[in-house]
């Protein structure tokens, strides 16, 4: 099933000379790429599409969307794929309708937006197309953005195994077989006519790093005659400039001081040369900047993801009276930067990050603590710092319930189990200190994946060794199940740590072993096992804590209540361990009531035989037994 979106773009008079051009041509095959749910601008996937001039009359974007998963595809929720298409510049997604600073210029009307449904059905119902007719621009420079709608719109949790993939095929349909004419060069059309201005300066680019470029002139071009204009121009290029933010600052300088009441007017626009130069004090075709006369007064404007091409800035100063001097000095700064005001990182609102997708680099703000927007300035959903601290402390300090678990395990000589409990406390604490977008987040090690793996691995292993300890198996069986369980849990957590089966299967298998052991014990002793006091003070309360914790974790926990419910899960699981650790001391190889012989295959102790072959007397036998006091007898 094909769903077609016809995008009408204003028609320019473009004709083509007869050439040997195929009527249909695949211009691009890209993907499949994995899509992410939108949280910040950095979550989008951006594709650069260059359409040759002979195919600009009609070209088609053909999309294929696929859901894949480790389990049942029906477990992966149906959602939409949001597609943005913008010519000459990267799209600026804003599905949250977040506000942006007044100094930031964003025009959402130059972006085509369409949402396509994606289901588990493959592939017939997940194929769509977007047709562009008479696009009319010779360069054919398009930027495509893809992402999934924000998860914050609902409490639906997406299983970690679900992956949403997209593939793009661009097909061009040539028009040279239908009309003939001559194509003019785009940059010839855009050449500046310096006769339109009193003074024109071309700013030269000086690139310092990725998405960091300064534009300046070597001439003395910052003095302006009153009631006239000076025009500055510069070119923004694909790849190197489109992924950053254009920043323009104009104001009064300290050379020829402005008369009080002077008004600096600036008009900035892309590809509106004559209009901007002649209308610097009106600025109908561009964006106006006004600075009232005062030394060092200035104004700054930002254009995130600016379009490529020639940009023009016309600056003029109005004299408030007849007493103005001939010249006034202005300050001008034009550059491409990474993010607007560094995403206000000084206020802990966000961080500026560099992203790479396809062949493009772009910078975007990674907002923290509920801040939103292109510059992390929309505080509609911002979380107060005091609440950030409370949520983080709940998640981290709740893990300290495993500290008494480890101490009690050591006292009762469950040494292996105690190591697991201390491991859980340590890594779960630092994982949850890192696992949030708050300003107070702290990551002990740079690898977030390592912290996450250790948290899941330790938690499931703690459940396993606790149930094995409750079963009170023999030393050899206990060692066997410890090793086999730890290895299996490591593989399962690596494969899919978020699946409920990763936790459920080890727990159910350990309960099966526990049931077999208790059944055998009941049959051997001919009475109920364990004793009723064990049921009353250990097994029943421990089981209740574990069951309530699992219900909260599996069925109650949502993104909105995660900090509170998950903290309760920590406390309940730690309490379950405290109740379930058996009271009796576990038999150890350090104890003296076991004898071990390599010859006799006893359980503990070591038998050493010293035999002299030439002596017919009975061999001397030395038996070493180790006790708690490390005494030795022979």
Give a verbal description of the structure.
The protein is of the alpha+beta class. The chain has 4 domains: 2-173, Jelly Rolls (Sandwich); 190-337, Jelly Rolls; 385-580, Rhopdopsin 7-helix transmembrane proteins; 589-634, no CATH class. It contains 10 helices and 24 strands. It has helices spanning 186-189, 273-278, 385-397, 402-411, 415-434, 448-471, 475-496, 500-525, 532-556, 562-580, and strands at residues 2-8, 24-34, 45-50, 58-68, 79-87, 111-118, 127-133, 141-147, 163-173, 199-202, 204-209, 212-216, 223-225, 229-236, 245-252, 263-270, 287-292, 298-304, 309-318, 327-337, 350-357, 360-367, 606-610, 620-624. Strands 11, 12, 13, 15, 18 and 20 form a 6-stranded antiparallel β-sheet that branches. Helix 3 runs parallel beside helix 10 and helix 6 (448-471) runs antiparallel to helix 7. The model is unreliable at 1-19, 177-198, 589-617 and 619-634 (pLDDT under 50).
Question: Which keywords apply here?
Answer:
634 residues; alpha+beta; Jelly Rolls; Rhopdopsin 7-helix transmembrane proteins; 4 domains; 5-stranded mixed sheet; 24 strands; 27% helix; elongated; disordered N terminus
Secondary-structure topology with pairs:
Blueprint: E1 2-8, E2 24-34, E3 45-50, E4 58-68, E5 79-87, E6 111-118, E7 127-133, E8 141-147, E9 163-173, H1 186-189, E10 199-202, E11 204-209, E12 212-216, E13 223-225, E14 229-236, E15 245-252, E16 263-270, H2 273-278, E17 287-292, E18 298-304, E19 309-318, E20 327-337, E21 350-357, E22 360-367, H3 385-397, H4 402-411, H5 415-434, H6 448-471, H7 475-496, H8 500-525, H9 532-556, H10 562-580, E23 606-610, E24 620-624
Parallel strand pairs: 1-7, 10-14
Antiparallel strand pairs: 2-9, 3-8, 4-7, 4-9, 5-6, 5-8, 11-12, 12-20, 13-20, 14-19, 15-18, 15-20, 16-17, 16-19, 21-22, 23-24
Helix pairs in contact: 3-5, 3-10, 4-5, 4-10, 5-6, 6-7, 6-8, 9-10
């Amino acid at each position: 099933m094909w769903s077609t979106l016809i995008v009408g773009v204003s028609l320019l008079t473009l004709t083509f000379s007869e050439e040997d051009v195929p009527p249909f041509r695949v211009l691009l095959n890209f993907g499949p790429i994995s899509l992410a749910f939108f949280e910040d601008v950095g979550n989008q996937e951006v594709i650069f599409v260059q359409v040759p001039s002979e195919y600009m009359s009609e070209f088609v974007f053909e999309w294929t969307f696929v859901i894949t998963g480790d389990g049942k595809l029906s477990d992966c929720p149906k959602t939409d794929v949001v597609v943005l298409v913008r010519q000459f510049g990267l799209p600026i997604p804003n599905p949250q309708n977040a506000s942006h600073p007044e100094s930031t210029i964003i025009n959402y009307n130059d972006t085509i937006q369409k949402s396509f449904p994606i289901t588990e059905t493959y592939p017939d119902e997940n194929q769509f197309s977007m047709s562009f007719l008479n696009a009319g621009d010779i360069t054919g420079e398009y930027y495509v953005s893809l992402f999934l709608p924000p998860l914050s719109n609902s409490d639906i949790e997406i299983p970690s195994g679900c992956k949403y993939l997209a593939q793009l095929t661009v097909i061009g349909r040539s028009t040279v077989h239908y009309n003939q004419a001559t194509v003019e060069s785009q940059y010839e059309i855009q050449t500046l006519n310096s006769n339109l201005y009193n003074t024109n300066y071309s700013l030269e680019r000086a690139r310092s790093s990725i998405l960091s470029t300064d534009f300046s002139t070597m001439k003395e071009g910052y003095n302006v005659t009153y009631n006239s204009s000076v025009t500055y121009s510069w070119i923004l290029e694909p790849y190197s400039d489109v992924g950053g933010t254009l920043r323009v600052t104009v104001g009064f300088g300290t050379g020829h001081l402005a008369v009080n009441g002077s008004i600096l007017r600036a008009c900035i626009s892309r590809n509106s040369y004559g209009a901007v130069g002649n209308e610097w004090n009106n600025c109908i075709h561009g964006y106006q900047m006004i600075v009232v006369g005062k030394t060092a007064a200035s104004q700054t404007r930002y254009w995130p993801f600016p379009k490529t091409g020639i940009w023009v800035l016309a600056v003029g100063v109005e004299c408030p009276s007849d007493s103005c001097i001939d010249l006034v000095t202005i300050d001008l700064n034009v550059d491409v930067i990474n993010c607007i005001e560094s995403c206000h990182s000084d206020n802990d609102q966000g961080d500026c990050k560099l992203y790479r997708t396809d062949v493009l680099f772009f910078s975007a703000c990674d907002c923290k603590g509920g801040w939103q927007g292109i510059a992390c300035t929309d505080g509609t959903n911002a979380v107060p710092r005091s609440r950030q601290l409370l949520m983080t402390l709940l998640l981290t300090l709740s893990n300290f319930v495993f500290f008494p678990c480890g101490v009690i395990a050591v006292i009762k000589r469950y040494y292996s189990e105690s190591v697991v409990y201390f491991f859980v406390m340590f890594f779960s604490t630092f994982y949850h200190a890192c696992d949030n977008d708050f300003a107070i987040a702290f990551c002990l090690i740079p690898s977030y994946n390592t912290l996450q793996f250790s948290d899941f691995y330790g938690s499931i292993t703690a459940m396993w060794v606790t149930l094995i300890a409750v079963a009170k198996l023999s030393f050899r069986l206990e060692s066997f199940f410890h090793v086999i369980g730890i290895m299996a849990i490591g593989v399962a957590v690596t494969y899919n740590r978020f699946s409920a089966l990763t936790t459920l299967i080890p727990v159910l298998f350990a309960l099966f072993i526990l049931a077999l052991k208790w059944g055998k014990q009941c049959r051997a002793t001919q009475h109920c096992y364990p004793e009723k006091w064990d049921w009353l003070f250990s097994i029943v309360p421990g089981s209740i804590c574990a069951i309530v914790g699992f219900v909260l974790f599996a069925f109650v926990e949502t993104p909105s209540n995660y900090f509170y419910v998950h903290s309760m899960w920590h406390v309940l699981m730690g309490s379950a361990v405290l109740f379930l650790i058996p009271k009796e001391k576990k038999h150890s190889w350090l104890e003296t009531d076991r004898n071990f012989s390599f010859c006799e295959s006893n359980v503990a102790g070591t038998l050493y035989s010293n035999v002299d072959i030439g002596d017919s007397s009975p061999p001397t036998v030395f038996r070493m037994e180790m006790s708690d006091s490390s005494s030795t007898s022979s």
